[in-house]
Design goal:
Distance between the termini: 40 Å
Order of helices and strands: HHEEEHEHHEHEHHEHEH
Number of strands: 8
Structural class: alpha/beta
Shape: globular
Radius of gyration: 17 Å
């Protein structure tokens, strides 16, 4: 493991999704303890997107933005909101130069699948229809997320393709949670990795799916047809149960004719980017921002 990250591992609290309410409090406390981002050059606004129910979003507008990113937080489909995601979303907006729409989708187990996906799709439709008001070119709209948020980004790209919804220019999947079956080598062997273990992933899927049968819209790794999807940036952490699911998804996208940029970050673990002082974390964040900036500014 990267030595800068290794030093922080003993300080990480153990995640436990057995009690979602308690885990949300712990997650919120961790988010509050992180250094606040510099938002001097950003216009930040909280809005409610009309839906059933309405969806809270936080919008980050840098100067002269030409595109937008619907940003989806992590948290195993169970924890997280626009407040816990504030530092991530602000840094993405600053680094990419894009309008960032951070989404407080409904979380499980109170609201299992498809609640979160319905919320994200409602925000996608709304953003595409209000591009002029939000200050971006509607042809330059991306979806992106970390962990469960990456899983939702992949799922909403599938749904938009299937329902002939708004054109998504780019999808960014960072350490994405894509497959409830947990059958890959990394899922079977990384049982006690920092932050996310096999048991945590199992609990997460159990909460998210509830009594529903897993479909590609719940777990994008189950999708058989990946053709016609947006170009992708996929990033994986070496010591992450999700690693091999994400690499397999990247390969299958390539085989379906979808352009993919794949980054496997050595010495990292799931969520280690939260350790902002580590040089590898800084490179990871810079790569995410750069990928979004390039995707949203290049001409077709």
């Amino acid at each position: 493991m990267d030595p800068e990250l290794q030093a922080f591992v003993p300080l990480f609290p153990k995640a436990d999704l057995t009690d979602p309410v308690a885990e949300r409090k712990q997650y919120a406390a961790l988010a509050t303890a992180r250094p606040a981002p510099d938002t001097t050059d950003l216009e930040i606004e909280d809005r409610l997107v009309p839906a059933d129910p309405d969806v809270p979003v936080r919008i980050y507008r840098p100067r002269a933005a030409c595109g937008a990113v619907i940003w989806l937080h992590g948290g195993g489909y169970v924890v997280g909101d626009v407040d816990t995601e504030h530092a991530w979303a602000a840094r993405v907006a600053q680094g990419s130069g894009a309008v960032v729409i951070s989404v407080s989708y409904r979380t499980a187990p109170e609201d299992p699948f498809p609640a979160a996906l319905d919320d994200v799709y409602a925000v996608l439709l709304w953003a595409a229809g209000h591009a002029a008001e939000l200050g971006f070119d509607p042809e330059r709209l991306a979806v992106a997320g970390h962990s469960a948020g990456g899983g939702l980004a992949a799922a909403v790209a599938l749904r938009a393709r299937d329902e002939q919804g708004p054109r998504i220019r780019f999808q960014l999947l960072n350490e994405a949670q894509l497959d409830d079956r947990q059958e890959t080598w990394s899922q079977r062997n990384f049982t006690e990795t920092p932050w996310v273990t096999r048991d945590i992933a199992t609990q997460s899927w159990r909460h998210y799916l509830g009594s529903a049968t897993a479909t590609p819209y719940a777990a994008a790794g189950r999708a058989e047809d990946l053709s016609g999807l947006p170009p992708a940036y996929i990033a994986t952490a070496e010591y992450d149960p999700n690693r091999d699911d994400d690499i397999a998804y990247a390969l299958r996208l390539l085989q379906a004719g979808v352009s993919v940029e794949l980054h496997q970050w050595p010495g990292t673990f799931h969520g280690s980017q939260a350790i902002l002082s580590a040089e590898v974390s800084q490179r990871q964040m810079a790569a995410i921002a750069d990928a979004l900036r390039r995707a949203l500014t290049l001409t077709d």
